[in-house]
């Protein structure tokens, strides 16, 4: 597990093939997902999570009263290896989104490494770049690197004066 | 957002909501950083507070130029300035760490939360195997 300053990476191994891990992770997210305070998507309490399979599908949370909160939209759906979904919580300011990457990697027969990478400020809204007149990808890459370095330095303990 | 805990893991982590910066603050900070000299200024300030004069010397620019750029950084919420009691003509600039600390707190909490979620997922996979 590591947090290198601009993203969170957590991984562990599960005792099954990638295809099964994929199915359990996506189809059965309502069975294993634990409500937790940090990932309280909306102020409406905790509900049931579900993926709508396929690129362009949504990750949603449905509450007892039938209302639905859209957590994000799937931008990569590549069973049984990789999925990418945007991730928003109601408490995020408008335009602020994070992005979740989930990987399923075979490490041994009957064993899969499941990794979750949650990107924070690496994924700035496009309009920021447009408004400030930078080529989009260059700006996003540069800022991601730059913030990563600044944050790494700022985490490295007391600063010399 | 209130600090009311949802049911669940019962961890002892902070009750703060995930705190990405408000959009206006991010905009202002980005605008301030859309200049190489200002980014270099922030890079210097990450290692510690400096006087305006020191920054100008290290970056090889005139005092008025430095002062202009520092004003933009201050208005963008990236730096603050103080005046030491012994010399009111001196201004010491310091990086505002709030921009970084909000993200840092979110990262630390998110790492713990994801560890818990993946552990729950692994338990779910294992329980089916035992059946």
Tell me about this structure.
The complex is a heterodimer of chains A (161) and B (131). The longest helix of chain A is centred in the last third of the chain and has 20 residues. An eight-stranded antiparallel sheet of chain A has the order 1-2-8-7-6-5-4-3, with helices on one face. Chain A folds into two domains: 122 residues, 2-Layer Sandwich (Alpha-D-Glucose-1,6-Bisphosphate, Chain A, domain 4), CATH 3.30.530.20; 38 residues. With 161 residues, chain A is of the alpha+beta class. Chain A is built from four helices and eight strands, in the order E-E-H-H-E-E-E-E-E-E-H-H. The N terminus and C terminus of chain A are likely disordered. Chain A starts with a strand and ends in a 6-residue tail after the last helix. Chain B folds into two domains: 77 residues, Arc Repressor Mutant, subunit A, CATH 1.10.10.10; 34 residues. Chain B is 58% helix and 8% strand. In chain B, 27% of the residues are buried. Chain B is mostly helical. The radius of gyration of chain B is 22 Å and the shape is elongated. The chains are: A alpha+beta (161), B mainly alpha (131). The interface between A and B is large, with 63 and 57 residues.
Fold topology:
The complex is a heterodimer of chains A (161) and B (131).
Chain A: E1 2-3, E2 7-14, H1 18-27, H2 29-32, E3 48-51, E4 58-62, E5 68-78, E6 82-87, E7 98-108, E8 111-119, H3 126-131, H4 136-155
Antiparallel strand pairs in A: 1-2, 2-8, 3-4, 4-5, 5-6, 6-7, 7-8
Chain B: H1 23-33, H2 36-46, E1 50-51, H3 52-59, H4 63-75, E2 79-82, E3 92-95, H5 98-130
Helix pairs in contact in B: 3-4
